[in-house]
From TrEMBL:
Spans traversing the lipid bilayer: 12-38
Top-level lineage group: Bacteria
Chief location: membrane
Organism listed in the record: Nonlabens ponticola
Any one Gene Ontology cellular component term annotated for this protein: plasma membrane
Pfam annotation, one family: Lip_A_acyltrans
Keyword Acyltransferase found: yes
Keyword field contains Iron-sulfur: no
Compartments in which it is found: Cell inner membrane
Keyword field: Acyltransferase, Cell inner membrane, Cell membrane, Membrane, Transferase, Transmembrane, Transmembrane helix
One Gene Ontology term of the molecular function aspect: acyltransferase activity
Example of a GO biological process term: glycolipid biosynthetic process
UniProt name for this protein: Acyltransferase
Length: 303
């Protein structure tokens, strides 16, 4: 059944990936009307998240953010498909970064690094950085249940050099290489854990929030520097990224420093462009009372 679904859908994806951008964004406009006004996809989830994050904003302002966020969501979906057929020149023109050298300095020292980013602006087109980065790039990700689509996503994201790895394989790669592989390990670190896996909680938009600490644990275990990748949307289909150092050596930092710093930087990034965050996922679906594991609280959580 999974193969049937894939081979049924793939021809449409292949065609869409080779359409010009102007036509793809017209398709995105049509999809937006259907998703936002007709099916009202996750509208309640989005508004609830905005109520939590921005209690000071008016209903009309939050409604505007919700509408523009869904438009960006549709654009982002189209851009992911376009990644299948996009050229290196096209993606490097549309996703730029002006300080890759701060990360490359660690590559010259044969020091692997961890990069943490959020579901803000464009996280798929970070493949544009592969050519400029001197590390071997690894994107830590959660595999898709359908193995056919999972293989397609891995091929798309690795087309310019990045290798996709589940978190456990990233640990194993570092351990087996004993740091001889100068790797850059990038992960989208604002994932919300499932209720039965929720264990770590910090403050995010003044709300006690379940988070994952995989990036911090990996960096601390192997004494790796950590960077936050701030991505700004310039206009439709164009983005600019900046690396911001969190630490030179996570093993020398107190517990929670890396994770808390990441969420502080992410919150600041979202506040600057709230319409380009992925508000449709249930960021605050798990509370402390829902946790079934022994809970660990960040020092930032009010006691």
């Amino acid at each position: 059944m999974q193969a049937f679904v894939f081979y049924l859908v793939y021809p449409f994806i292949w065609v869409l990936a080779r359409l010009p951008f102007w036509l793809l964004y017209r398709i995105s406009d049509l999809v937006f009307v259907i998703v936002y006004y007709l099916t009202r996809y996750r509208k309640k989830v989005i508004m609830n998240n905005l109520d939590i994050a921005f209690p000071e904003k008016s209903y009309q302002e939050k409604k505007r953010i919700a509408r523009e966020s869904m438009q960006h969501f549709c654009d982002n979906f189209i851009e992911i498909i376009k990644s299948l057929g996009i050229s290196k020149t096209q993606v490097e023109k549309r996703f730029t970064c002006d300080n890759v050298d701060v990360v490359n300095a660690f590559a010259k020292a044969e020091q692997p690094v961890v990069i943490m980013l959020g579901h803000q602006a464009s996280y798929e087109w970070t493949i544009a950085l592969d050519e400029a980065l001197e590390h071997q790039s690894y994107a830590v990700y959660k595999p898709i249940k359908n193995p056919y689509f999972d293989k397609l996503i891995r091929e798309v994201r690795s087309k310019f050099g990045t290798t996709l790895l589940p978190m456990k394989k990233a640990y194993n790669l570092i351990r087996q290489s004993q740091k001889s592989v100068t790797g850059l390990y990038a992960l989208v670190a604002d994932q919300a854990p499932k209720p039965y896996k929720a264990q770590y909680f910090t403050q995010f938009f003044e709300r006690t929030t379940a988070v994952l600490k995989g990036g911090e644990r990996m960096a601390k275990q192997y004494g790796m520097p950590v960077f936050f990748l701030r991505v700004k949307k310039l206009k439709r289909g164009f983005y600019h990224a900046t690396f911001e150092k969190i630490t030179d050596d996570a093993s020398k930092e107190v517990d929670w420093m890396v994770t808390d710093c990441f969420f502080e930087l992410l919150e600041d990034q979202i506040k600057r462009q709230p319409e380009y965050y992925l508000w449709s996922h249930k960021r605050w679906k798990t509370s402390l009372k829902d946790a079934t594991r022994a809970v660990e609280l960040s020092p930032r959580v009010p006691q």
